[in-house]
Design goal:
The complex is a heterodimer of chains A (152) and B (259). Chain A is of the alpha+beta class and 152 residues long. Chain A has five helices and five strands. Classes of the chains: A alpha+beta (152), B alpha+beta (259). The A-B interface holds A 1, 17-19, 21, 40-43, 45, 48, 51, 54-57, 60-62, 64-65, 67, 108, 111-112, 127-131 and B 1-6, 8, 28, 31-32, 35-36, 39-40, 48, 50, 52, 75, 94-98, 100-101, 175-177.
C-alpha cells in the first residue's frame, strides 16, 4: 500500500507492505537511524518519536496508521551546530552513558516539557516511565530535563 | 512481523463490511495491546481493520453523565474532566507514550484482566454504546478477553453517569503498570458500587464490599470482609491469594481517598 507522511518537514510517499511498522519505515526506508529499536515489545521507549506533536513508540505503530501524519525524529530537532536545548542539556549534565536510549529519552522529554505542567524531579521520573536506560543513568537524565525546562 | 492485510475504512458501515468480508478480521484501535500481540504471534488475523478514520473521539458532558468516544486517547481523558477519579485512572495507565495512542474503546473491548478502565466501567455503572446497541456494564465483561460485544460490532462510546464521589486505587505491576489489582469505589445515584480489575479473569463487582459500604461508608466497614480468590489469576507477579488480599487493601485506600 502507498502511504504519505511528513518526516522532519519533508513529505515522503512510499509503497510499503501492509504489515510494516512505522519504525521500519523511518530506519530502513528513510535511513533515519537515530531512532533506535531496543526491545521491539513496547517497553523500552528507545524508538520514541513525535507523531502529530505527541510522543509515541514507533515500534508499536503500523505504517498505515501513520499515513498522513506529521512525524519528528531525533534528527529533526536540532543540528550539530545548533543543538536543541534538550540535547544541549543532556550534553551539559552528562545525561548519557552508552547513549542507546538517548534519542527516545530526548523525544519523550521534549513532549513532557512542551505539553505538560511545570516539572519537578518526581514528575520527570513519572513522565519518563516509558523510557528505560539500562546503564541506569536516570539521575543525570532527570537533572538534564529539569535544566532544559528553563531553556525551552 | 507475519503478514496480514491492513484496511483503514472511512466510515462505520465500511468498517463492518470489511470485517464481514474478512476470513479472520480484527479491529485495530490504538494498537497498544493488539500490535504487541501480533508481534508475539499470540493472534494471527488475516485482516487488520484500523478504526482510526472513524469520528469516534471526544468527551461530551450532559446533565448527569459524561460520554467518552471510543477512540478518545487515555491522555485526553487524563487531561481532566468532570469525573476526576476517571482522569486519575487514565493518568495511571501504562506510560506517556502508551497514553498517547491507547483508547478507551480498545481497552474495554479487549477486556484484558489487567486493564484499568473496566474497573471504572463496572464501578460507575457505565453504558457501553456499540453499533449493535447499548450494553450495561454489569453484562459487558464476561471473562478473560471476553465481552458481550456482538461479533463484528464496534464500541462507539462509553457513557458514565456522574458519581457522587469515586476513587480508584491500583497496585501496579512495577514494570508494565498494568493493574495487579485495581479497585474503584463509587457512591453513585444507584448506590455504592465497587469495581475490581486485575484480580479475576475480568472486571467484576465486589458485592459484599458494596453492602458494607452502603451501611457505613468508611474504611473500617471493610475490616474483616472476605474475598473469595478461588478463581483469581495466579502468575509470576502475584498468587491468587495475594490478589485476594490486595482487593481489600486497594478498596480501603480508595475509600480513604474520599472520606
Amino acid at each position: 500500500m502507498e502511504i504519505s507522511l511528513t518526516v522532519n518537514g519533508t513529505e515522503h510517499t512510499t509503497d510499503v507492505p501492509d504489515n510494516s511498522l512505522l519504525v521500519e519505515i523511518i530506519r530502513e526506508r528513510l535511513n533515519l537511524t537515530g531512532t533506535h529499536v531496543g526491545c521491539d515489545t513496547s517497553q523500552c521507549g528507545a524508538c520514541t518519536i513525535h507523531m502529530d506533536g505527541r510522543s509515541v513508540k514507533s515500534c508499536t505503530v503500523l505504517a498505515g496508521q501513520a499515513d498522513g501524519a506529521d512525524i519528528t525524529t531525533i534528527e529533526g530537532i536540532g543540528t550539530v551546530d545548533a543543538l536543541h536545548p534538550m540535547q544541549e542539556a543532556f550534553r551539559e549534565n552528562h545525561a548519557l552513558q552508552c547513549g542507546f536510549c538517548t534519542p527516545g529519552m530526548i523525544m519523550s522529554a521534549i513532549d513532557l516539557v512542551e505539553n505538560g505542567k511545570p516539572l519537578d524531579e518526581r514528575s520527570v521520573r513519572e513522565g519518563l516511565e516509558g523510557n528505560l536506560c539500562r546503564c541506569t543513568g536516570y539521575h543525570n537524565i532527570v537533572k538534564a530535563v529539569l535544566d532544559a525546562q528553563d531553556k525551552m | 512481523m507475519y503478514r496480514f492485510n491492513y484496511h483503514k475504512p472511512d466510515d462505520m458501515d465500511a468498517a463492518q463490511q470489511m470485517m464481514a468480508d474478512a476470513e479472520d478480521g480484527v479491529y485495530l484501535s490504538g494498537g497498544m495491546t493488539l500490535i504487541p500481540t501480533l508481534k508475539a504471534r499470540l493472534a494471527s488475523p488475516t485482516d487488520v481493520i484500523d478504526l482510526s478514520g472513524l469520528a469516534l473521539s471526544g468527551i461530551e458532558l450532559a446533565d448527569d453523565s459524561l460520554t467518552i468516544g471510543a477512540l478518545t486517547l487515555h491522555s485526553e481523558v487524563a487531561a481532566g474532566n468532570e469525573i476526576s477519579s476517571l482522569s486519575n485512572l487514565a493518568l495511571a495507565i501504562g506510560d506517556a507514550q502508551v497514553r498517547n495512542r491507547g483508547t478507551i474503546g480498545g481497552s474495554i473491548a479487549n477486556s484484558d484482566p489487567g486493564a484499568d478502565y473496566p474497573a471504572a466501567v463496572v464501578a460507575l455503572g457505565a453504558t457501553i454504546n456499540t453499533t449493535a446497541g447499548a450494553i450495561d456494564a454489569d453484562d459487558f465483561f464476561q471473562g478473560l478477553f471476553e465481552t458481550a460485544l456482538k461479533p463484528g460490532a464496534i464500541v462507539t462510546s462509553v457513557t458514565f453517569p456522574l458519581p457522587v464521589r469515586a476513587a480508584y486505587e491500583k497496585f501496579p505491576n512495577p514494570a508494565s503498570r498494568y493493574a495487579v489489582v485495581g479497585v474503584m469505589v463509587a457512591e453513585t445515584n444507584g448506590g455504592v458500587r465497587v469495581g475490581v480489575t486485575g484480580a479475576g479473569p475480568c472486571a467484576y463487582r465486589q458485592r459484599n464490599f458494596e453492602q458494607a459500604l452502603a451501611d457505613n461508608f468508611s474504611v473500617a466497614a471493610l475490616d474483616g470482609l472476605e474475598v473469595d480468590y478461588a478463581e483469581f489469576n495466579s502468575d509470576i507477579h502475584a498468587s491468587a491469594e495475594y490478589r485476594g488480599h490486595l482487593v481489600g487493601v486497594m478498596a480501603r485506600r480508595a475509600v480513604a481517598q474520599i472520606t
